[in-house]
Amino acid sequence: MEQLATNRDEAADARARGWLSGAGLRPTRQRRALALLLVGDGRDRHVTAESLFEAARETGERVSLATVYNTLKSFTEAGLLAEITVDGARSYYDTRVQDHAHYYWEPDGRLSDATTSPLGIEGLPEPPEGMEIARVDVVIRLRPARTGTPEA
Amino acid sequence: MEQLATNRDEAADARARGWLSGAGLRPTRQRRALALLLVGDGRDRHVTAESLFEAARETGERVSLATVYNTLKSFTEAGLLAEITVDGARSYYDTRVQDHAHYYWEPDGRLSDATTSPLGIEGLPEPPEGMEIARVDVVIRLRPARTGTPEA
DNA sequence: TTAAGTGCAAATTATTTGCAGTAAG
DNA sequence: CTTACTGCAAATAATTTGCACTTAA
């Protein structure tokens, strides 16, 4: 068990380090810690600066909120994360960087992936002359269904 | 000409008033002024609080910025406007309230309609159990094309 | 009248930045 | 060594709010 845990930790750590080095970012203690939280388990994550800051300090890491903000920005500029804006206030960061739709759960302000497939928007209009599509943001806002599933 | 201008103004004013009363909102001086700017000419508009505030004071209207913010919020709650979030900072308000895709012009931070038709997203995933889709936000981010039209 | 709407200025929220200290290459 | 990174605390930016005043119904 100990061994397994250690192995798993080492694998996660290796993944985090590779993630950083692959983008040419200095593997500082803070960045490694945040990278570990973001991609350590290989699953996709959607975080806000605040939520990642919380997660970090829950593991006992010493990181300042400003650094979390700056780090998320660096990661995004390096192409490691995608920034998603939903509410006008908070910014969400997604470890899955290719275009894909998101669910925004209005009740609890959470963000999650809407599909596993790369999404097919059929009616996508042609970009105007001299312009190209940098990215397509699709946010599907969810609210509790009023009909269908009875609340009883 | 005088006559025509007056007629046009009256028509615009009537439209603005009808727009407000249709939503059961009190037609105060400030609201009528803002409504006039928003729907006076019957065309769709995309504004920010700041841009509408500017537009208002350019016509000589006395409206405070706070009131513009509050008014845009009221209009949105009344279903007269749709709020669109693009950059995480600014909020845009659209006089066209049904779901439709938007172009976001990265170079100048402007927002415009992407299509005239209601947009067909084919691959839209089914909403999760107990949830329904409140709205689908689609923002197509445009940047200057690097290829295609030569810059010479 | 009287509750809703308005205008300040102060308060909030999310994020950025300046700068002195710390650490990676 | 030397340049990038980090951590505060202060600065911004967009938006909201408290409260006295005004106005539409």
Task: Give a verbal description of the structure.
The structure is a homodimer of 152-residue chains. Chain A has 152 residues and is an alpha+beta fold. Chain A has helices spanning 2-22, 29-39, 49-58, 65-77; strands at 46-47, 82-85, 91-94, 102-105, 110-113, 131-144. In chain A, strands 1-3-2 form a three-stranded antiparallel sheet. Chain A has a three-stranded mixed sheet with strand order 5-4-6, with no helix packed on it. In chain A, helix 1 packs across helix 2 (29-39). The radius of gyration of chain A is 18 Å and the shape is globular. The N and C termini of chain A lie far apart (44 Å). The model of chain A has no long low-confidence stretch (mean pLDDT 86). Chains A and B meet through strand 6 of A and strand 6 of B. Chain A binds a DNA duplex (25 and 25 nucleotides) through residues 26-31, 48-50, 63-67, 69-71, 73-74, 88-91.
